[in-house]
Amino acid sequence: MTAFEVFVSKDTFKFNAAHFVAYKGFRERLHGHNYKVAVRLLGSRKIGPDGYVLDFGCVKAVTKKICKDLNEHFICPMRSDVMAIVVKDDESCLNGGTITLTCEDGSVFVFPKKDCAMLPIVHATTEELAIYLWGKILGALNSEYLVKRGMHTMEVTVAEAVGQEA
C-alpha cells in the first residue's frame, strides 16, 4: 500500500510565551520560550483528483491562528494539581480581571486575565502543550475531512528551544 506524508513547518508556526512547571515538591522560576510548531499528517490513500494528499493551505491557516492566539501570553495550566488558581472577572477593568496562582511553596503570582492563555492542562510543559495543540489543530481541520482524504495519523511537534521538542 502506498503511504503519503504531509509535513508543514513554517516561520509563522511560532509563539512566545511565559510559563513555569510545577509539580509536587518542585516549581521552576517564571521564564519564557520562543516555541515553534510543526505538523505531520500520514495517509494511506492515493493522491486525490485535485492533485493533493491534503492541501497545505488548510494546515497552515489553522496552525498559524492557534499559534497567534497563544503568542505573548502566560501559559496557565488550569488543571494544575499543585496550584490554587483563582480567576477574578472584572469587566469594568481593561484587563478583564486577574488570575492568581498560589503555589505549593507559598509563591503567589497575579496576572492580568487578558495576558493569560488558560489551557486545560495539568503542567505547562512542552509535552502537554503538544497534546493541547494536537487537539486544537485536529478539531479545526475537521477529522471527517482528514479521514475522507485518507489521513490516519497526525503528529504535532512543539519545540521550546533547538534540540528540545516534544
TrEMBL record:
<keyword id="KW-0479">Metal-binding</keyword>
<comment type="similarity">
    <text>Belongs to the PTPS family.</text>
</comment>
<keyword id="KW-0456">Lyase</keyword>
<dbReference type="Pfam" id="PF01242">
    <property type="entry name" value="PTPS"/>
</dbReference>
<dbReference type="GO" id="GO:0006729">
    <property type="term" value="P:tetrahydrobiopterin biosynthetic process"/>
</dbReference>
<dbReference type="GO" id="GO:0046872">
    <property type="term" value="F:metal ion binding"/>
</dbReference>
<comment type="pathway">
    <text>Cofactor biosynthesis; tetrahydrobiopterin biosynthesis; tetrahydrobiopterin from 7,8-dihydroneopterin triphosphate: step 1/3.</text>
</comment>
<keyword id="KW-0862">Zinc</keyword>
<dbReference type="InterPro" id="IPR038418">
    <property type="entry name" value="6-PTP_synth/QueD_sf"/>
</dbReference>
<dbReference type="GO" id="GO:0003874">
    <property type="term" value="F:6-pyruvoyltetrahydropterin synthase activity"/>
</dbReference>
<keyword id="KW-0783">Tetrahydrobiopterin biosynthesis</keyword>
<protein>
    <recommendedName>
        <fullName>6-pyruvoyltetrahydropterin synthase</fullName>
        <ecNumber>4.2.3.12</ecNumber>
    </recommendedName>
</protein>
<dbReference type="InterPro" id="IPR007115">
    <property type="entry name" value="6-PTP_synth/QueD"/>
</dbReference>
